[in-house]
Design a protein that fits this description.
501 residues
Length: 501
């Protein structure tokens, strides 16, 4: 075991020399040309479609954070500061859109590196799927929006890259990089939190399971070698969990300091959960007598209707609006809602799973998926004051009603790509095929785990289908398709050689 460890260290020590020696090779030049091409494509597409887009009320929330420092209770806030640095100070949305286009290009480049370095694809396959990633409709349209999707996706791909690097090399400092990037990731988009928490434990297990399989399968290995692998793997799990608690604790403390409230990831998670699971609620779930009476009279606002779950959260006269009127203290209100939702989950998990399945089935239908795509492109209405403020602060003239604006080039592309979304919604299945066909199943298994957790998040924790939520799943789908195509190419190559001979 020690001999193999020394060999690995020797290989790693000589690797930089090999890389520097080949820097001037045609392959290295091809990589530089690819990077330039991707970034050029992004900037040309931005030149063709340069108009900023708003999605209400998310965009309005981020703009208000940028202007005033206000921290929203129900979403991550770091993007608001990016808007401040790149749009408020220059008094224009243009620098923000340029940086988002370039960030999306970097996402495609990191995606290509994953194909090449971890799944050992040829430059031809890596570059081809990298270009497909750059033109992914789930990415392209959001580069124009005052929305967190572009920067959060870049951070997600970086988390994925460093996670795969850790699975390969098993270095503690790589775990620290993964956790630091993960904090930034859910600081931009809180929906990634569950995959971050689960993979905090699973990532070291996958890494050392990959290392342990050859040891367990080789009878000549000593008991000490087996013990070394298991004990080191356990230490890495402990370190990973400790890093998560420390870094997440710091994030919550900063959030509490900014909002002048108790430390927390969010301050509206309870009201979100209880509205998404509203049809599964029973009066006995409530931990407060007033909320118990409200649920008992739920027929007055159609609490059993799964199509009204979004209204239960935001609509006037629905569940959360009524709860707000009877429980004035916002901290107590969210705690009551969270405890009630968790009681419902413990007592009726199958009913909540049914609600998640109902959300998932919302993606299956040509008319519905096109309708959700159009709905994702903007809704709501700005006030006269908001229109004036955006014009003064950013030099951008917009109409009051967002949906009345004609679709841009990228928006038409987003809606027209609806057949692709049917592939993305089965991404866990596509990732499962890739796991079976991959050169290294540990790497592909990580993709499958990510896809499965993200699918749970966008179905069990969402009131309705939303194409925008498929964005990270699209990355995993493209990676998995690339693995499958690469496997087919490898299978076809020996057959072609035999026929030629």
């Amino acid at each position: 075991m020690e001999r193999s460890e020394h060999a690995a260290i020797k290989i790693e020590a000589t690797a930089p020399q090999s890389i520097s020696a080949g820097a001037a090779s045609p392959a290295a030049n091809a990589w530089w040309l690819f990077c330039v091409l991707v970034l050029a494509i992004k900037l040309v597409l931005l030149w063709l479609d340069p108009t900023p887009k708003l999605y209400l009320g998310d965009s309005a929330s981020y703009i208000w954070t940028a202007l005033t420092g206000w921290i929203p209770s129900d979403r991550s806030y770091l993007y608001g500061y990016v808007v401040r640095w790149l749009a408020v100070w220059p008094h224009s949305f243009t620098p923000l859109l340029v940086m988002q286009a370039l960030a999306s290009g970097v996402t495609a480049i990191v995606f290509t590196l994953i194909c090449s370095r971890f799944f050992e694809m040829s430059n031809t396959f890596s570059f081809s799927f990298g270009l497909l990633c750059a033109l992914d409709p789930c990415q392209l349209v959001w580069e124009r929006y005052i929305m967190t999707e572009t920067f959060s996706l870049l951070l997600y791909v970086l988390v994925l890259y460093w996670s795969l690097l850790y699975v390969r090399d098993r270095r503690i400092w790589q775990l620290a990089v993964v956790q630091a990037l993960s904090v930034m990731l859910f600081g931009f988009r809180i929906s990634y939190l569950l995959v971050v928490q689960v993979c905090t434990i699973l990532l070291p297990i996958i890494a050392f399971a990959r290392c342990a399989m050859p040891v367990f399968g080789n009878r000549s290995e000593t008991r000490s070698s087996t013990t070394y692998v298991l004990s080191t793997g356990f230490k890495h799990v402990v370190v990973s969990v400790a890093l998560m608690f420390v870094m997440h604790g710091v994030y919550k403390q900063v959030n509490g300091s900014l909002t002048k409230r108790e430390p927390a990831y969010l301050y509206g998670a309870g009201t979100h959960l209880v509205s998404v699971w509203a049809p599964a609620l029973q009066p006995s779930d409530a931990t407060d007598s007033r909320f118990r009476d409200l649920i008992a009279n739920g027929h007055q606002f159609k609490i059993d209707d799964p199509t009204l779950r979004n209204a239960q959260h935001f609509g006037e006269g629905f569940l959360i609006d009524r709860l707000r009127k009877i429980v004035r203290n916002r901290t107590k209100r969210d705690r009551i809602a969270r405890e009630t939702a968790m009681n419902a989950l413990r007592r009726r998990p199958l009913q909540i799973a049914g609600l998640a399945f109902n959300t998932y089935m919302g993606y299956w239908g040509v008319g519905s998926i096109q309708g959700y795509a159009r709905e994702d492109l903007g809704n709501g209405e700005l006030t006269d004051e908001e229109v004036k403020r955006i014009a003064e602060k950013f030099g951008f003239i917009t109409e009051k009603r967002v949906p009345t604006q004609p679709f841009s080039l990228s928006q038409r592309y987003f809606v027209g790509a609806w057949p692709y979304y049917f592939i993305v919604v089965v991404s866990p299945l596509v990732c499962a095929f890739a796991t079976w066909l991959s050169r290294d199943r540990s790497f592909a298994l990580l993709l499958f785990i990510h896809a499965s957790i993200l699918m749970v998040v966008i179905t069990a924790l969402s009131p309705q289908a939303c194409i925008r939520y498929l964005q990270p799943l699209s990355i995993l789908t493209l990676l998995s398709i690339a693995i499958c195509v690469d496997w087919l190419a490898r299978r076809a190559r020996p057959a072609a050689m035999q026929s030629a001979s």
